């Protein structure tokens, strides 16, 4: 069940229910009811909020056998921060290319 997966992932990260709820911006009571399998059909929006905090994709929460590599939460937060600061995708790509060039020059 999805609640069992959420609970296991939360415990792997040594997070309390309160920490998960606060970082994801969701109600602690809802997370608790999900983990206790009282709530068994969470919305995609809810899963979209908790997945990055748990360091996984929504697909991983829905299908534990999904072989898709989990996204590192720090990378997700970095990308969000870049977007919020006004950096365009093109500028970000240019930076990556420049950095590759700089590394190859050494």
From TrEMBL:
HTH cro/C1-type domain boundaries: 6-61
UniProt-recorded Gene Ontology molecular function terms: DNA binding; DNA-binding transcription factor activity; protein dimerization activity
CDD domains per UniProt: HTH_XRE (cd00093)
InterPro entries given in the database record: Cro/C1-type_HTH (IPR001387), Lambda_DNA-bd_dom_sf (IPR010982), SinR/SinI_dimer_dom (IPR010981), SinR/SinI_dimer_dom_sf (IPR036281), TransReg_Diox_bact_type (IPR050807)
Residues in Sin domain copies: 62-100
Pfam families: HTH_3, SinI
One GO term describing the cellular component: cytosol
Keyword rRNA processing among UniProt keywords: no
UniProt keywords, alphabetically: DNA-binding
Protein name: Transcriptional regulator
Organism in which the protein naturally occurs: Jeotgalibacillus campisalis
Taxon lineage: Bacteria, Bacillati, Bacillota, Bacilli, Bacillales
């Amino acid at each position: 069940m999805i609640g069992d997966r959420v609970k296991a992932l939360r415990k792997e990260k040594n997070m309390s229910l309160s920490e998960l709820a606060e970082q994801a911006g969701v109600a602690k009571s809802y997370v608790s009811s999900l983990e206790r399998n009282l709530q068994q059909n969470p919305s995609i929006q809810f899963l979209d909020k908790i997945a990055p905090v748990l360091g996984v994709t929504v697909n991983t929460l829905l299908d534990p056998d999904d072989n898709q590599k989990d996204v590192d939460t720090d990378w997700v937060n970095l990308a969000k921060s870049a977007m919020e600061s006004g950096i365009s995708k093109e500028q970000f790509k240019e930076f990556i290319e420049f950095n590759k060039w700089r590394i190859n020059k050494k």
